[in-house]
Design a protein that fits this description.
InterPro entries: G_GB1_RHD3_dom, Guanylate-bd_N, P-loop_NTPase. GO terms for molecular function: GTP binding; GTPase activity. This is GB1/RHD3-type G domain-containing protein. The protein has helices at 23-30, 49-56, 107-120, 134-138, 141-144, 146-149, 155-160, 167-173, 197-204, 228-241; strands at 8-13, 19-21, 36-43, 76-82, 90-96, 123-129, 176-184, 189-190, 193-194, 213-224, 248-253. It is globular. The strands form two sheets. The chain has a nine-stranded mixed β-sheet with strand order 2-1-4-5-3-6-7-10-11, sandwiched between helices. A two-stranded antiparallel ribbon has the order 8-9. The chain contains ten helices and eleven strands. It is of the alpha/beta class. The chain has a single domain (8-253), classed as Rossmann fold (3-Layer(aba) Sandwich), CATH 3.40.50.300. It starts with 7 loop residues before the first strand and ends in a 5-residue tail after the last strand.
Amino acid sequence: MALMEQPICLIENRETGDLVVNPEAEKILSQINQPVVVVAIVGKYRTGKSYLMNKLAGKSNGFALGATIQSKTKGIWMWCLPHPKKPGYTLVLLDTEGLGDVEKGDSTNDAWIFSLAVLLSSTMVFNSLGTIDQNAMEQLNYVTELTERIQVTSKKATNDDDDDDGSSEMKRFFPSFIWCVRDFNLELKVNGADITEDQYLQNSLKLKKGKDIICLNCRVLIIYIKDEQHHCKKIWQEILLGILSLEAILLLEGILLK
């Protein structure tokens, strides 16, 4: 495939709320005759997702950046590059429209974009700022809507086996999940003892009485304010070396993964 100098819009988000595939992007994808690794980033609007994706691509420019309070990225943008670690593979980076944009005022549209990012990617990065707190968890409410929008088995197949809720099939389609916590400036300690990033995640998401919690394999990565360049490089290595999906458990409400 020809090298893409700049990203292109893959999914256009129209003012009507319709999500439409860009024929030019579809043509580019159809010309790829190699295995692909697809990395998508999602998260609240105006939190630097596009900046991070440019860093992951090893470029200073690419995905559009904005310096105002308005959301810059609309829809889903795609950038196809040669995979830097796997010869013969194509790396596809997907930058998604920010969630929770007050100008849009439609969480349903957000959920559809999130769902598409899940289904299109092999690795999904959830981008947030500060710490893993209640507000950060509330930003993941969109995940609970996935069960209403994603069906991977027919109703007939599901009815044939009452014990099969589609979970095993969904595992085949769901990507590895990285929670990227940026601008983190606290010490990773609990009761005076050092903890790992994954332990911090698990400690933040302890089971609560009365909650129906199901597990999803994931990693959490911390980006410190004072050393963002180094940690962007760390994320890049984590993603490309494929060591991000087996060590930690993210606990989410209502998602069909067991």
